[in-house]
Specification:
The complex is a heterodimer of chains A (about 110) and B (about 110). Chain A is an all-beta fold and about 110 residues long. Chain A is built from no helices and 11 strands. Chain A has strands at about 5, 10-15, 20-25, 30-35, 45-50, 55, 60-65, 70-75, 85-90, 95-100, 105-109. In chain A, the strands form 2 sheets. In chain A, strands 2, 4, 5, 9, 10 and 11 form a 6-stranded mixed β-sheet that branches. A 5-stranded antiparallel β-sheet of chain A has the order 1-3-8-7-6, with no helix packed on it. In chain A, a hairpin with a 2-residue loop joins strand 6 and strand 7 (about 60-65). Chain A is globular, with a radius of gyration of 13 Å. Chain A starts with a strand and ends with a strand. By secondary structure, chain B is mainly β. Helix content of chain B is about 0%, strand content about 55%. In chain B, strands 2, 4, 5, 6, 9, 10 and 11 form a 7-stranded mixed β-sheet that branches. A 4-stranded antiparallel β-sheet of chain B has the order 1-3-8-7, with no helix packed on it. Chain B is globular, with a radius of gyration of 13 Å. The interface of A and B includes residues 35, 42, 45 and 91 of A.
Chain lengths: ~110, ~110
């Protein structure tokens, strides 16, 4: 079967760095997406990785290792507004997104 | 504002009611999606429309009936729902269904079935 695993909840301190991991097993691979979802709001796109390596976009970076079925989202200089759920999703061979259950990130002052 | 709107934002209905959820996208996309989001569970893909044609129906019960009159509008008709159908229903759109395209989501309809 297809499976995406990510931690249920993480806590970090304002100004610090946090890494959210995602491991996957899917039927085929056409890229991995990270989305951010604030409570009561729509998920919004953060990043897309299809090749191995690190993609940096401001305070957020995303890493992919296809051989290990592994990705992480790195958030630097954490701000209170970064408190949200972070969703990992893999696009399978049929171009369908397979989603993880999301990681709720709590930022403390 | 993602360019995808959904109405209503909240809906409470009894098990014998009939209601419809509406989604509209202003992005010129050709693919539209319905997802169900339950607490602490992954998003569940329900239906996919590509160029107004339904291309995916992930074993969704017949009490959920989608309609896509054009590439900009998507409806989800609801009838004889069960309490376990209570969830957040998200609509999304993308350039097209085939290809690694980013999906843009609406804010969702919070549905409660009594």
């Amino acid at each position: 079967g297809q499976n995406i695993d990510q931690p249920t909840e993480m806590t970090a301190t304002e100004g610090a760095i946090v890494q959210i991991n995602c491991t996957y097993q899917t039927s085929g691979f056409n890229g991995l997406f990270w989305y951010q979802q604030h409570a009561g709001e729509a998920p919004t796109f953060l990043s897309y990785n299809v090749l191995d390596g690190l993609e940096e976009k401001g305070r957020f970076s995303s890493f992919l290792s296809r051989s290990k079925g592994y990705s992480y989202l790195l958030l630097k200089e954490l701000q209170m507004k970064d408190s949200a759920s972070y969703l990992c999703a893999v696009m399978d061979s049929n171009y369908q997104l397979i989603w993880g259950a999301g990681t709720k990130l709590i930022i403390k002052p | 504002e993602t360019g995808v709107t959904q109405t209503p934002r909240h809906l409470v209905m009894g098990m014998t009611n009939k209601k419809s959820l509406k989604c509209e996208q202003h992005l010129g996309h050709n693919a539209m999606y319905w997802y169900k989001q339950s607490a602490k569970k992954p998003l569940e893909l329900m239906f996919v429309y590509n160029f107004k044609e339904q291309t995916e129906n992930n074993s969704v019960p017949s009490r959920f009936s989608p309609e896509c009159p054009n590439s900009s509008h998507l409806f989800l008709h609801l009838h004889t729902l069960q309490p376990e159908d209570s969830a957040l229903y998200l609509c999304a759109s993308s350039q097209e269904a085939a290809g690694a395209n980013e999906q843009f989501f609406g804010p969702g309809t919070r549905l409660t079935v009594l």
